[in-house]
Write a structure and sequence with these properties.
13 helices, two-stranded antiparallel sheet, globular
Length: about 250
């Protein structure tokens, strides 16, 4: 992470072609394309969650946000209602954890995470400094940090520091929040500041995880098995180190 207050004057070139290349490689079957394969309610929800959590299941991210709207989807089912019935059991079987950040009746916003990966991330000194600066009263206590995040999401607006929890490079988080004199470099899946290379590498790794899971589900695999899969994608543990160190 670039030190807060330290100026970075270097200009990064040819970033737009790199972003375009990432976008060009992103074509893959969408959930609506293969959801008809899964006719059971639990399987339908499991296939959706497996795709939305692909990066977390393959240890390329510590957490993902998943929003389930209270309405009928292309599969003919209401995933919000299916979550109420099957969600907790599916997540427990997956080995992941869930924190309901907001349930407004019209939708539910979930933080789904790996306890070990998110815990390791929040243990980093640089992360605690950011959370303390953002006003988290107990940045060294895992549950207290998640409770504070939930409180902020329930309020008006949306906490910009959410990128920390999702494993975005810390330079991009503090750059977006205006806490470091880093220039905006390019728009990837998130706003990228300063050196774009580690951020684009991380985004590409996320894309690979999502594509692999999408192709598996489109082939008709058991979604319950997909939801339990971990440390599979290109790189396994080194990928996890990338999000822990891409600062």
């Amino acid at each position: 992470m670039a030190a807060i207050g330290k100026r970075e004057d270097r200009r990064w070139v040819q970033t737009e072609p790199a972003v375009a290349a990432v976008a060009a490689r992103s074509a893959r079957p969408g959930w609506q394309d293969f959801s008809p394969l899964y006719t059971e309610d639990r399987d339908c929800l499991a296939s959706f969650l497996a795709l939305e959590l692909a990066e977390v299941l393959q240890e390329a991210k510590p957490a993902n946000l998943v929003c389930l709207a209270n309405k009928r989807r292309s599969c003919g089912r209401n995933l919000y209602l299916l979550w109420k019935e099957h969600g907790q059991a599916l997540i427990e079987a997956s080995g992941l954890k869930v924190r309901v950040l907001a349930d407004r009746g019209s939708s539910v916003l979930l933080l789904l995470y790996s306890q070990s990966a998110l815990g390791a991330l929040l243990d980093q000194k640089s992360v605690r400094v950011i959370l303390q600066k953002a006003g988290y009263p107990e940045p060294d206590r895992f549950e207290a940090v998640l409770s504070e995040l939930e409180h902020r999401v329930e309020g008006e607006g949306f906490p910009h520091e959410i990128g920390v929890f999702l494993g975005y490079p810390l330079k991009d988080v503090v750059g977006f929040m205006g806490w470091a004199p880093l220039s905006f470099t390019c728009q990837g899946p998130w706003k990228i500041f300063g050196n774009p290379v580690p951020s684009l590498e991380l985004a590409e790794n996320h894309r690979k995880c999502r594509c692999e899971m999408s192709l598996q589900l489109a082939s008709g695999c058991n979604p319950l098995d997909c939801l339990k899969r971990t440390a599979r994608g290109a790189g396994g543990t080194p990928d996890r180190q990338l999000f822990l160190s891409a600062a």
